[in-house]
Amino acid sequence: MTKQTLSVAPVPFRLGVLGHSPAATGEVLAMTKAEQAASVAAYYQSHKTQIKTQRAAHRKAHKTEIAASKAAWYKAHRAERAVYLKVHKAEIAARAAAWYKAHKDENITRSTAYYEAHKAEIAVRRRAYLKINKVRIAAYGKAWYKAHKIQMAKWHVAYYETHRAKEIARAATYRKAHPDKYRDHCAKRRALKRGAFVERVSRVVVFERDQGRCHLCGKKVDPNNWHLDHIIPLSPLTPGGKGGEHSYRNVAVSHPICNQRKHNKLTGQLRLF
Ligand SMILES: [Zn+2]
User: Fold this and answer.
1) Of 28, 15, 56, which is closest to residue 5 (Cα–Cα)?
2) What is the pLDDT of residues 12-22, one digit of tens each?
């Protein structure tokens, strides 16, 4: 195969050089445009495999050159291209969607094979990308979540309904592995139910802050058995009164027994009102 036969000349010329097309005999000149197009199309159809093989070989042999030439072209026509893409946006999207639909199985097979073959490489690249774009991605995700909140909630409910048994098992495993987090979650839920102001409170943080001491009696508590006491109780003591917050400034470590005593005392006081 000589280099000439592989040149990237316009199609009729290239076909002529191959020596099989009407172009080689000069007939092309006597043809109308439509006839010419038909002839080229017919030639392409009958030599499809050959042409494709040649083109692929050419692309392979001139990979760098072609890439450089493409890049240069894109660079030189950037503004023009931007305008074109904007004007034909819908059209281009429709064409791409149609193409994707027509080649769906093929596309999936190809991309799956590519992914399998380049798995490790892709993971490294993805991690690097996530690291560099961390802030931007987080902001984007937050905005997206906000815009799709209702949709997401519906989706979660539907997912839970269809995966109920699995989700229950997963939650149980999680509770067992993270008892402190589960308690944080329950405390927050209780506070929300009472309509209190709520912030994310971690038992681990409170325990460390209070150095494991009961704020009611001042003695150390059992790290595996202590209560998170709300200094001002969550429930309002008087009708129409304001309950306490579920926040760091309104919680403290306490013995279960001290917590219970305080509770009894407060409700006892309440009975006096
Ligand atoms: Zn105590």
Assistant:
1) 15
2) 444 444 445 54
End-to-end CA distance of the chain: 104
- What domains, with CATH codes, occur in the chain? 4-76 (no CATH), 178-272 (1.10.30)
Q: How far is the CA of 257 from the centre of ligand 1 (A)?
A: 7
pTM score > 0.70 for this model? no
What is the SS3 assignment for 13-69? HHHHHHCCCHHHHCHHHHCCHHHHHHHHHHHHHHCHHHHHHHHHHHHHHCHHHHHHH
Residue type at 141? G
Length of the chain: 273
Looking at the predicted structure, is the pLDDT value of residue 236 above 60? yes
Let me know: does 197 contact 247? Beta carbons within 8 Å: yes
Q: Rounded to the nearest whole angstrom, what is the distance from the C-alpha of residue 227 to the centroid of ligand 1?
A: 10
Distance CA 36, CA 19 (A): 16
CA of 215 to the centre of ligand 1 (A): 7
From 13-27, 101-115, 192-206, the region with the lowest mean pLDDT:
13-27
Q: Which residues pair with 254 in a beta bridge?
A: 227
